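Listing S7. Sequence submitted for prediction.
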Amino acid sequence: MSKHLWSGMDRILWTLSLTISLLILLAVSSRVDAASCNKYYRVSAGVLKHYTNKKTGKPDIRIGKYTKRIPLFRKAKLNPYYFGAVIRPRHRRPYTIAVTYEVPYKNKINKAYFKSVTVKGKRLILREKAVTVTGKGAVRMRLSEGDQPGIYKARIKVNNRYCRTVAFRVYKHKARSKTRKKRSKKRAKK
């Protein structure tokens, strides 16, 4: 009879407990990264508004409307706005922003703009080149002709640490029918 230090069942239990502890460690470390990001950076998401800063006279960006639902119009001219996130640091030091976008597969993408473009199922994964910023930073997305409705995600890393994932639901905008407009005008006259 040979003596083995580990029986088959002991090996399985040991491997399972090691796997579970590694998963717990990974989950805790990602929460710590996100918590430290929230401590040093304020991230808010919605429709972005470009304006001229009255104090500096320079172009600036802010959240125009806090929403995660973005309408998709048939004509590209009607999609003039940007949506995404604004990152406000609680300090004056430079920092880097690296973003990974996840968009529906059928979208037309300018591949030269991104560091890498990969296909994952019915989604495109787009990695943007890291940018060093001092002051307020922005993660911008814009819809153009041929884009599809669906979930658009931006995974934001600040200083090579996970900060936040922002997800937007892009839906087809339904134009109001002319008969409905006429009815509302008739009601207004009464």
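Caption to Listing S7: primary sequence and predicted structure tokens for the chain studied. Helices lie at 8-40, 178-189. The mean pLDDT is 79.
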